């Protein structure tokens, strides 16, 4: 009888960014912009030019501010996904989902859903009534994911970038009051 070794696929977990992880965040953010340039309002060229202190501040602020939720998906030691939740302090009932991206090697395994679910739960805990995002217009896996979760179009498509031809569709997920947890006093 032949002996075969079983291969074990490491589990993917969601991880909140820590201030000291700014270099790894920079790397995955730039990778997302490079590999899927039509998915983001920003560009690789623009963000690649940011100095180190910009990245340090972005991640440090995200890690410490209660109205920010920067997260990554990790499989073993590899960062395979990214997402950032944000609630503007002047609009505490409106949450936003930005920078959503999953590496090609991790797609089709539920990683995107884990990231979106994490931001939804974070928004509910903070008392948000709705979660907003923009997705590139078209029948894309991202758009289908958002629709499965319950997002619906919110207005007409708008330019993804100023002066560009690509459009993004604003979408909204209403977080019903019965679904929300009590707002924290932070």
From TrEMBL:
Q: Which GO terms describe its molecular function?
A: acyltransferase activity, transferring groups other than amino-acyl groups
Q: What is the recorded name of this protein?
A: GNAT family N-acetyltransferase
Keyword presence, Magnesium: no
Spell out the PROSITE patterns in the cross-references: GNAT
Q: Which UniProt keywords apply?
A: Acyltransferase, Transferase
Residue ranges occupied by any N-acetyltransferase domain in the UniProt entry: 12-176
* InterPro entries, alphabetized: Acyl_CoA_acyltransferase, Bact_Acetyltransf, GNAT_dom
Q: Which residues cross the membrane?
A: none
Q: Which PANTHER family does this chain map to? A: AMINOALKYLPHOSPHONATE N-ACETYLTRANSFERASE-RELATED, AMINOALKYLPHOSPHONATE N-ACETYLTRANSFERASE-RELATED-RELATED
Source species, domain of life: Bacteria
